[in-house]
Write a structure and sequence with these properties.
Blueprint (H helix, E strand, L loop, with lengths): L12 H11 L3 H9 L17 H12 L5 H4 L1 H11 L8 H5 L11 H14 L3 H14 L2 H17 L3 H8 L3 H9 L6
Helix pairs in contact: 2-7, 7-9, 8-9, 8-10
């Protein structure tokens, strides 16, 4: 055994999230794992199916096809995910937020907050939509949730080459400039 290099690797949600952004994993799976990161990798020796980064990626494909995810992540994780999906019914309409047409309040329940922030991050296809979502978040959400949203949003926009466009749009937004001034570490 001493002839080999032994590395211990542990799953890390932030690394998985970066991979998920680039790979297009289903937003609800990513939002669920943000809420329950302990289920990113949770081996179950009694079951052939259990949560792992690989099985969550397979679950994303199943979910997009309208199929049950239990065969790849196990019954327990699938049941928790199904309960989490009901949270989406309580959210403000994400399209309205992205188009700048809502005055809804930010949800109180933590799972709904994760679902909302990641849903907006993943659905913002243009810098203008990102600006609307950012403006709404700054107006209604506690600073720590805006910071979480902004970090993920900036990562996604950077991957798509749209961060500069958002930077130009936000210059005309005093509240956003004030927020970014207070949280300068988000940008750098």
């Amino acid at each position: 055994a001493n002839r080999f290099l032994h590395l211990e690797v542990e799953p890390d949600f932030e690394s998985f999230k970066a991979y998920a952004f680039a790979s297009g994993l289903h937003e609800r799976i990513l939002a669920f794992l943000a809420f329950r990161p302990g289920l990113l990798h949770h081996p179950d020796p009694k079951s052939p199916a259990w949560p792992s980064p690989r099985s969550w990626e397979m679950a994303s494909h199943l979910l997009k096809a309208g199929l049950d995810i239990a065969p790849v992540v196990g019954r327990g994780a699938a049941a928790e995910f199904a309960a989490f999906e009901q949270v989406y019914a309580l959210l403000p309409e994400l399209t309205d937020v992205l188009e700048g047409r809502t005055d809804k309040a930010f949800p109180e329940e933590p799972s709904a907050r994760y679902a909302l922030t990641l849903g907006l991050t993943l659905r913002a296809e243009t810098a203008q939509q990102a600006l609307h979502a950012f403006r709404w978040m700054v107006g209604v959400a506690p600073p720590e949730w805006v910071q979480l949203f902004a970090c993920d949003l900036f990562t996604r926009l950077r991957l798509r080459g749209q961060l500069g466009e958002l930077a130009q749009l936000r210059k005309a937004e005093p509240r956003l400039e004030e927020f970014l001034g207070r949280f300068r570490e988000l940008v750098f």
